[in-house]
């Protein structure tokens, strides 16, 4: 899923989640899909883009407000996935939260 941010005249917020995976699948793919589906139903969710190359992954989610991001962070199912991620799926990760002020693109 991706977001067409051209629909939004106001600024919005971006969560950049970069991670390095541990060995083994251990149900990661299924949980990632469950979390994406759940996030897409949260208040203020605008979209998501994700890429993974071997162990390195980057997922970018787009939100209307910081409050929406905070609500997603403490969502019960999301919290359970975060705990499992620390125990089983990730060697490391970093979360960056940014305010998007401007964007532009090119499409052929």
How would you characterize the overall build of this protein?
The protein is α+β, with helices and mostly antiparallel strands and 108 residues long. The protein has a single domain (11-99), classed as 2-Layer Sandwich (Alpha-Beta Plaits). The chain has three helices and four strands. It has helices at 28-39, 66-73, 76-89; strands spanning 12-21, 45-53, 56-63, 90-100. Strands 2-3-1-4 form a four-stranded antiparallel sheet. A hairpin with a 2-residue loop joins strand 2 and strand 3. Helix 1 runs antiparallel to helix 3 (76-89). The protein is globular, with a radius of gyration of 14 Å. The mean pLDDT is 90.
What is the element layout, followed by pairings?
Layout: E1 12-21, H1 28-39, E2 45-53, E3 56-63, H2 66-73, H3 76-89, E4 90-100
Antiparallel strand pairs: 1-3, 1-4, 2-3
Helix pairs in contact: 1-3
Give me a quick take on this structure.
This protein is an alpha+beta fold and 108 residues long. The chain is 31% helix and 35% strand.
| Total domains | 1
CATH classification, class level: Alpha Beta
The number of distinct helices, counting runs of at least 4 residues, comes to 3
The shape, in one word, is globular
Rg estimate, integer Å? 14 Å
Structural class: alpha+beta
The spatial strand order of the largest sheet comes to 2-3-1-4
The CATH architecture designation is 2-Layer Sandwich
Count of DSSP E strands? 4
| SSE string, helices as H and strands as E | EHEEHHE
Largest sheet: 4 strands, antiparallel
- Termini separation (Å)? 20 Å
Overall pLDDT confidence: 90
CATH topology: Alpha-Beta Plaits
- Strand content bin: 35-45%
* Uncertain parts: none
């Amino acid at each position: 899923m991706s977001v067409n941010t051209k629909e939004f005249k106001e600024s919005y917020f971006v969560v950049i989640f970069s991670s390095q995976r541990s060995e083994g699948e251990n149900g990661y793919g299924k949980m990632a899909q469950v979390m994406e589906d759940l996030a897409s139903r949260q208040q203020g969710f605008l979209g998501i883009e994700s890429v993974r190359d071997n162990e390195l992954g980057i997922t970018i989610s787009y939100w209307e407000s910081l409050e929406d991001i905070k609500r997603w962070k403490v969502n019960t199912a999301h919290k359970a996935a975060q705990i499992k991620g620390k125990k089983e799926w990730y060697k490391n990760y970093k979360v960056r939260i940014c305010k998007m002020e401007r964007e532009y693109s090119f499409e052929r």
